[in-house]
Specification:
The protein is α/β, with parallel strands linked by helices. The chain contains 16 helices and 13 strands. Helix content is 40%, strand content 20%. Strands 3-2-1-4-7-13 form a 6-stranded mixed β-sheet, sandwiched between helices. The chain is globular and about 65 Å long.
């Protein structure tokens, strides 16, 4: 069996940093060789947030005509290439020893079947990032555009992480693997196989956005601001009400920052005169709250695991983590409309919930795309629960090889953007 050495890349919805990890795959064994993180500056975050607003609900042809699109796109890809080259230089990695880069691109819009079927639109997903350009700038083969294959075959295309959690379960065991990133998502793993996977809702989305807007900080380190405040129950109710249509959607489902109406929530909190510390505390509590509320939607046909394996930077926030643990154990404030379903959830646990951090947690999302690239190189299906239940095999991704004579890039936008 061939061993693979693959670099995984993730920038995430929050655009807080470029994360890279070089992982060696040897059958079921995974070993991270080195990793690299470089924070984005506020200027780049602002450019991408502005572009996100401009491209919302637009077709690929409309997007490429935007005057700022190519400039922001090229800067984004060049920064990733620079980080890959720097990681290899610092760690004395011979690029010839690397089989591929697994490149996610930047998601700017997402309208999956779980949403489009409700509002009568055609599903699509939008990621920007030319794999060909990245291959040329690094001299390494790039595998990318993974979500398009799922959308074009009638599946949500997010979250993609459950099969990777299943692969990790060979080392860490079965349970509920829960990611705390900009959006939270989870996977139920039984017998090292993903049987359910879904996005829950905003995790760092509100917290980081509000902190960046009102302070010079990038995030609420160690929950210093949140822990100095208290829960505002009216704001908690507003948070749920404004995203109710999404939060109450049956599983599986996939979310997008556009569903959470961040600017409207911020304006509401400020209009009500709620203090910064109380707003941040409530946002942090809501991250945990929605993560637990999503678990109440798990069908009764699936046994509720008592073991929770956490990964993603959001869980480093002690207020979020402790609130999650408390709610799993029936402690903490619950909106009156949810008292019954939260109580039912607690009774489903056959033993007290056990919460631990994943051994592979720090670079899980970056490694996910290295794993996806490995499967594409082997022409193996990426077995998300939806496709397993539909008895469909989908090999996802596109391969780009370096070409010194290429100067025009026709893959800046993924295949399943609006209008595909």
């Amino acid at each position: 069996m061939k061993k693979y050495r693959i670099i995984g890349n993730m920038t995430g919805n929050s655009m807080d940093a470029i994360d890279l990890v070089l992982t060696e795959f040897d059958g079921e064994k995974m070993n991270d060789i080195c990793s690299f993180t470089k924070s984005y500056n506020k200027d780049m975050q602002d450019k991408m947030e502005s572009l996100r607003k401009r491209v919302f609900n637009k077709t690929a042809l409309e997007i490429v005509d935007l005057p700022e699109f190519k400039r922001v796109h090229d800067e984004y890809v060049r920064q990733i290439a620079e980080c890959i080259n720097e990681m290899c230089l610092i760690n004395e990695i011979d690029k010839q020893s690397i089989d591929a880069v697994g490149f996610h691109g930047k998601t700017l819009d997402h309208n999956p079947p779980s949403k489009s079927q409700v509002d009568g639109t055609k599903p699509y997903t939008l990621q920007i990032g030319s794999g060909k350009m990245l291959a040329d700038l690094t001299g390494i083969k790039v595998v990318y555009d993974f979500r398009s294959d799922f959308i074009m075959n009638g599946f949500d295309g997010a979250p993609l992480v459950p099969p990777h959690n299943a692969h990790i379960a060979h080392s860490e065991g079965d349970g509920c693997y829960y990611n705390g990133g900009n959006t939270s998502n989870f996977a139920i793993i039984e017998n090292a196989q993903a049987i359910l996977g879904a996005d829950a809702g905003p995790f760092n989305e509100y917290i980081d956005g509000y902190i960046r807007k009102h302070t010079a900080l990038a995030f609420d380190e160690e929950a210093k601001i949140g822990l100095s405040g208290k829960l505002n129950k009216e704001l908690l109710q507003k948070l749920f009400d404004i995203g109710r249509m999404y939060y109450e959607t049956e599983l599986p489902k996939s979310g997008d920052p556009a569903y959470y109406h961040k600017s409207e929530i911020f304006a509401y909190a400020e209009k009500c005169g709620i203090s910064l510390s109380d707003i941040v505390h409530t946002f942090e509590y809501f991250a945990a709250y929605i993560a637990v509320q999503a678990l109440t939607l798990i069908p009764d046909t699936i046994d509720m695991p008592s073991k929770f394996i956490l990964f993603g930077g959001g869980w480093k926030n002690p207020l979020v983590r402790q609130s999650f643990i408390d709610l799993l154990n029936g402690v903490g404030y619950v909106l009156p409309e949810h008292e019954e379903q939260f109580g039912v959830l607690c009774r489903k646990f056959k033993q007290l919930p056990q919460v631990k951090n994943s051994f592979f947690g720090d670079y899980m999302e970056a490694r996910l795309f290295a794993d996806l690239a490995r499967c594409k190189l082997e022409e193996k299906a990426w077995k998300i629960p939806e496709t397993l239940q539909a008895k469909k095999q989908i090999v996802c991704g596109v391969i780009a090889v370096p070409d010194k004579n290429r100067f025009v890039y026709d893959d800046m936008i993924n295949r399943a953007a609006k209008g595909w």
